[in-house]
Automatic annotation (TrEMBL):
Residue intervals of the TPM domain: 24-142
Database matches in Pfam families: TPM_phosphatase (PF04536)
Coiled coil location: none
Top-level division of the source organism's lineage: Bacteria
InterPro entries, alphabetized: TPM_dom
Organism: Crenobacter oryzisoli
Protein name: TPM domain-containing protein
Organism classification: Bacteria, Pseudomonadati, Pseudomonadota, Betaproteobacteria, Neisseriales
Length: 166
């Protein structure tokens, strides 16, 4: 039943629901948070929102983690000079959040720290607070990156700060 419920949620997800949860105002707030964040550390943050998985991936039981890894590659988050990219991925139909960090960052910031950020964001999303949850997630990611990778000089911005809706 759990698998069937997930399939129904994904098939019922519409582009309109994604835009209602992440309207232009919210996307601008996320972008501003990322711009401010990247002044404090040498990491590069991307934020991606996907409404639902495609039917083939859904039938195969693809997890949000596996899809986040695909999106990490698709958006070329791995393609930074210092291997310092971080993807915050939201799968709206599951109200799930995944954080994928490039090897240069993941070696220093452990999975438990990323999981805590994801759970906090998911709780906000469950309550319908998408902008607050997203911005809080960017800020928590900023704290991790500032602790482990503080800005020592002005770095180039290698990845777009604007969130992407897939």
């Amino acid at each position: 039943m759990n698998r069937l419920a997930r399939i129904v949620r994904h098939l019922a997800m519409t582009h309109w629901q994604v835009r209602r949860a992440f309207p232009p105002r919210t996307l601008h707030a996320i972008e501003a948070a990322i711009k401010a964040s990247e002044l404090a550390h040498v990491g590069q943050i991307r934020f991606a929102v996907e409404g639902a998985l495609h039917s083939v991936a859904l039938w195969r039981g693809q997890s949000s983690r596996a899809r986040a890894l695909e999106v990490f590659s698709l958006l070329r988050v791995w393609d930074t000079e210092q291997n310092n990219g971080v993807l915050i991925y939201v799968l709206l139909a599951d109200r799930g959040v995944e954080i994928i960090a490039d090897r240069g960052i993941h070696a220093r910031v452990g999975e438990p720290e990323w999981r805590n950020i994801c759970r906090t964001m998911e709780a906000a999303f469950k309550a319908g607070h998408f902008e607050d949850g997203a911005v809080a997630g960017v800020r928590a990611t900023t704290q991790c990156l500032t602790t482990h990778f503080p800005a020592v000089r002005e770095c180039s911005n290698e990845l777009p700060d604007r969130p992407v809706l897939l």
